[in-house]
Design a protein that fits this description.
Blueprint (H helix, E strand, L loop, with lengths): L1 E9 L5 H12 L4 E6 L2 E8 L7 H10 L6 E8 L8 E7 L2 E7 L4 H7 L2
Antiparallel strand pairs: 1-3, 1-4, 2-3, 4-5, 5-6
């Protein structure tokens, strides 16, 4: 199972309807939206396909290509890998992606939180 959840935001102006329609086309059948919230464009998306189908690369490639100075975060988990108990984290700052792991989602780390 492949799981991802993310949001991106910007204060730059863009056509939310056009972005949302394109996101839905790229991300179908999984939830995706682009809306203005308190004057800022907010893009959110999530999904749980049976396997990685290049959704994240398609979605991020499209929105980062808009050059909107986006910032936000995307969490990805692929249960078919040896890192099934951790989330890969893509942090976006000014349209640049940074990748890391979130050890707080690691099984052993989580157990220690509840000891």
């Amino acid at each position: 199972m492949y799981e991802y959840h993310g949001w991106l935001s910007t204060s730059r102006q863009a056509d939310a309807n056009e972005i949302e329609n394109r996101l839905i086309e790229l991300n179908d059948p999984y939830p995706a939206s682009a809306r203005y919230v308190n004057g800022q464009m907010h893009i959110s998306f999530s999904g749980n396909p049976n396997r990685e189908l290049n959704y994240i690369n398609s979605v991020t490639g499209y929105v980062l290509g808009l050059n909107l100075s986006l910032y936000g975060i995307i969490y990805i988990n692929d249960s078919d890998t040896d890192r099934y108990d951790r989330f890969e984290v893509i942090k976006v700052i000014n349209d640049i992606k940074y990748t890391s792991e979130d050890r707080n989602f690691h099984r052993d780390e989580t157990k220690r939180l509840f000891e």
